[in-house]
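Please, structure for the following, as tokens.
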Amino acid sequence: MQNLYNELIDLLQEDQALIVDDKLNKGLIIDRALRLDPALIRLLLTHEKIRKQFFVDIDGIMVFDKIAFQRFVNTKKFLEDSYTQYKNKIGLSTDNENYLTDSKEVVLVWPHKDCILEGGQTKDDAKRNEIFYNTTLAPDEIDVLTAPKVLTNWKRYDKDGETVPTTISKQDNLIIKGNNLLALHTLKEKYRGQVKLIYIDPPYNTGSDSFGYNDSFNHSTWLTFMKNRLEVAKELLSNEGVIFISLDDKEAHYCKILMDDVFGRENFIADICHKSRASISNDKIISPNHNHILLFAKNERIVFSQKDKFGIKKDLTGFKLKDEVGEYKLVPVDGPGGAVKGNPFYVFEGIEGYWRFSKERMTKMYEEGLVVKTATGLQQKYYKEKAAKSKQTISTWWDENFLTSSATGELKTLMGGDVFKNPKSSNLLKRIVELWTSDDDIILDYHAGSGTTAHAVLELNKVDKGNRRFILCEQMDYAESVTSKRIMNVIRNNNEGNFVYAELLKNNQQYIDTIQAATSKESLQTLWLQVQETAFISYKVLPEKINASIKEFEALSFEEQQQFLIEVLDKNLLYVNKTEMSDIRHKVSDYDKEMTGKFYGM
């Protein structure tokens, strides 16, 4: 076999396109093979031994076995120093297939960037080893992992309490409990391109938050974790959609570059700094008292070129007034902005420039009451309360009502005790949601935490009689005891509102939860027997490992037993895929089948 490795290496070196820094690039070779690159296929066919190894003769037609080739090239013996396309000194750019040396952009690169981090904690203190899938080397595993899931434990909540839902529609508010990466892929089936606003308050990776991965390169893992989810989030956004990400100084600046990578640098709008605490630390020369909110558009040009039903361009703040008229005043055609005298146009003067409308158009708008005469001439009608708020459109928000301490007090009052650490202020979220949404818009928060985003949406809807809808995703166990309960309390206080709660149906994830919660070797030994009988074992695990005697298992330490049990489980089957809900092994109830079908069919 070693001779075949060497012969393949010698053959591939004949193609200069596969060489980077005078070395063959394994990631590039696999990428070309999976894309059935004609030049690579022709080269492989020239070598008799390699042709016999990786091609099948079907009636005189040579068919390339790209899976066998991928597995062969992926072995450690083949180019040991070139595992993924980002591990080499020079890899592929993320925006196209050019090498970094030829790219005109700055690209953030880190170990395992080209991987999927599965994740899956259920408790803040539940540490676990990260699970990586290389997007080039493990496409089948990733397809199964991210496939839409079956939903279970359905509940509907309104001011009258809890009921069992029989219907589900896009008019419903929604909370999904489960791994948020898989929840996002599940939502993508029905909400792709329909979300107006995404707000997330992800783990800040401070070492004491919920990003508790047993990882020797924690910063890289966090970036992979974020990138996987942001890529799906972008697909969920509408063309006019925006995303707000709340972070502190530890990761905010790296995330800015990551967002440039995923969303495009041209779609960056602002880094909003808001006051997060009133006090300062005595042990620091400079004590930060603010957090960052990174604001990106899916398409900045579309966002800022939208027109309302009257043809009036909206200003940069994204405000939508109740009469849907933007905040612009009219100036003469020969006024600021370089308008030419004699041109029969009126001009709106606004934050972003000057916008011209014909005299006929202006006359009609005046007759309709959309513009009014004032002492200073024609001026567009607007509401005083909105004009007052426009003073806050700068990128520093120093409102005392945004402080974490205020948010903690608010939540404690609402919930009757301390139930969540460092919640976000509902006033801060109201500010964000009000800036960019109006009636019927969908707001998504896939790091839902205590449910502040939903709280803000419900409160704003009450004020302006809107119909904004929220979608929350939360994988921690407090999704019911804190998140849902908080929203229920808001609904009761407002005497209006409702939401539907559902969970991703667990498969192997239930075993992982039990393994991580175990406290003794005796319980793990019982679990090992259960895993062998009813769990889905990874095909990568050797039979002799599965058939290990109970004495060999007992000889392992408690931590080793936990690691072993998690290792043998198939991580692609943590939750039940929608396509497999009729498989009797998964024991999906008829009710869950019906409601899952209605969810995907709505």
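The radius of gyration is 28 Å. Residues 81-99, 212-217, 307-355, 372-392 have pLDDT under 50 and may be disordered.
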